[in-house]
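Session log. Operator J.P. requested a structure for one protein chain; no other inputs attached. Running the standard single-chain path with token output.
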Amino acid sequence: MKLTKLSSALLGICIFTHSSVVTVNAETAVPYKNETSYSEQQVEELLAQLTLEEKITLLAGGDAFSTAAIERLGIPSIVFSDGPAGVRDLGSDPTLAYPVGIALGSTWNTELVNQVSAAIGRDARARKVDLMLAPAVNIQRTPLAGRNFEQFSEDPYLSGKLGAAYVVGLQSEGVGSSAKHFVGNEQELERGRGSSNIGERALRELYLKPFEIMLEESNPWTFMAAYNRVNGTYMTEHDYLLNDVLRGEWGYDGVIMSDWGALHSSVSAINGGLTLEMPGPGKFFDAKLAEAVKHWQVEESVIDEAARRLLRLAFRTGKFGKTTESVGLKALEDNRDIALKAAEESIVLLKNDQRVLPLNTKVLRSVAVIGPNANIALTGGGGSSKVVPTDIVSPLESLREQLPQNVTVTYAKGVDNDKSPPPAEGNYFSTDKARKIVGLSADYFANPDFSGQPEITKQDTWFEKKGFGREVYFKNPSFSVKWTGYFWPEVDGEYEFAAHGHGNTSLFVDGKAIYGANVDDKEWENLQDKPSKKVYLTAGKPVPIEMRYTKSAKTWPIFYFNVRTPAGAIEDAVAAAKNADVALVFVGSSRTSETEGHDRSDMTLFGQQNALVEAVVKANPNTIVVLNSGGPVSLPWDEKVPTLLQAWFSGEEGSHALTNVLLGKTNPSGKLPLTFPKRIEDNPTYIHYSGGRDANYGEGVFVGYRYYDKKNIEPLYPFGHGLSYTDFAFSDLSASVDTASGTVSVSVKVKNTGRVAGQEVVQVYVGDNEARLVPRPENELRAFDKISLAPGETKSVSFSLTKRDFAYFDVHQHDWVTESGSYRISIGSSSRNLPVSTSVSIQ
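Structure written below.
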């Protein structure tokens, strides 16, 4: 069911604070007008005109999501927005939701990632956003990390190459990038004060490596210093990593900003290399810095250098006199095709033992669609990267749209996978009984008592609001909103409702007041845990819904409306499966289980999902399981299920992409960017992850597939794995060494031996055959290329490896060392499927 597109897509950005709202004007008149370039001389001329106080003003945000402006000199504000899966609108308005980081990582397609980020750049320009807080390139060190879904991979090379492609695409549109989270933010537990204790070799070879690649190949205009400490020192004041490595050794000339609220000092942070405190107004980069300069704790040259970098950023983002190109809705709609292609290439076919896929619609007559994720749209994970989608389409809806009319589709939820009532799905509601317009009608009043005529009436489809109501906030911070419409129960049973917010909230179902609350000045994360009420409803009978919300003047505008639908029973799902040609089971993470701020407690699918899968596959051998998650989960039924797809959180086009793959309109080409262990105990971080303040990276360089290979532990699904509807063969591997430069030229032939066109990811791994001085991984990814092949077609693929590709970091020399000896070069389709191999001698 499609949502009506909202013209609000072109509204300007408004930045909310707890006490005020600031309108950002992207067309500020300024004296320095450069459309496409700037000079360092211009930066210096402008810097010379600033007072010390004005320089310090530049070093802290003007508000929550923009830098401070200096009106005297026409220095404009730079507007930020969260990423990396799309532009997170600060008023909770819909924007195009793209696949999350791990889904983009599964494409192994740098060109496609470049296209996605360029599209996000165009979306950002349409909303007057100058810089996106993206991409996230931390390593997926542990399966339990709450933000794994935002990262690309467990491998630093893959992460770095995809990250660089993302930055190039974004900045090609004139929108800056913030490479995050620098560095060591591989878990959410105690991220605000905990220390990531990492040895120098692992730090260099794994955790710094993606950022180094990105800087070399794309030069992000900003880096974001992480919340955590590294080896006891907060990253926002880490002199060695910020000044010595990032700026000194790597030569970085851009801005280093803090993560939001990550600053803990004034003097240590500015001397330690930080440029910008966010959010604003500053708590540490304020008058305290002027006092520090006065008392010789900070040299004014340090303030000058930080202000210089902020001015350089303003020039780079085109804020000095550059006329922002108008990006219309048509251009944004064109971006939808890119989102669809990315979602298609992100899907990983893990198993297809009986070749049930692709579905043959010529003989197919019935499909059972089963599971808690079948009729919801899992577009992304939770937290700051959450994007309000412009379209809400579930897999069930997409299948009903695309399957032939003679195919019967039955649906059974079977079990629940939400620990608490999840955010209400917009497609459960309509504005009237005709059910022509999805969502609820929302009346916004510029007063706290719903009196008079509403300032604005609009359609609302998203009820997880973190900052909203900007249409009326200007007139009265104590505004009120009334939502009305109809809820459409799908089955008979008890429906669990909850409505909460910062302010007064009430909920009426079928004319009866069933819930009310007064929640002021609470953290928004806790609102989802408030009490709820259950109401018995009859399937197909529309029920009037009314919600009322009054925001007080002192609170942040936040509102949640949650609904848990009846799960039915596993027996219902089994009955549907028995009577169908094919059973499609949708299980995995829920809309509330993977989010910023919280790590998972285990890898187990919540509730009775495992029992559901086992019961369905027993009832129907033609069972296809579709898994939604932001990382590995335990699959105790894996050997019993013949067909398995990993669909991640693939943005708002994810359901259409999945249907295209199921029906064979798209040949799957995704590859796992991380390892699926059989159990959590097999993971290298298992004995090191704790509930304390220290994150001890005791596994060293043996993370992900490096560990499983070294320990000879069979994973459930290896790094790089992913099947196709066709087959590929590798042959004729050759490698030659240029003794003068140490460069190794590698070539291999790949043939499509199947009957349909497809894409294969050619993966190149390097291993030290001798490794005399230090323990080294058996294989390490050093190159890859995604190629398209027609049936019967053969292509020769070439790579160039440098001496650094054979090196390790020596902690005694504090430098990269390539040991003379024999090195193995292996090529194939995954870290455990390397059919061709050869050795070269490196001196």
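Operator note: Residues 51-73+223-239+253-316 form one domain.
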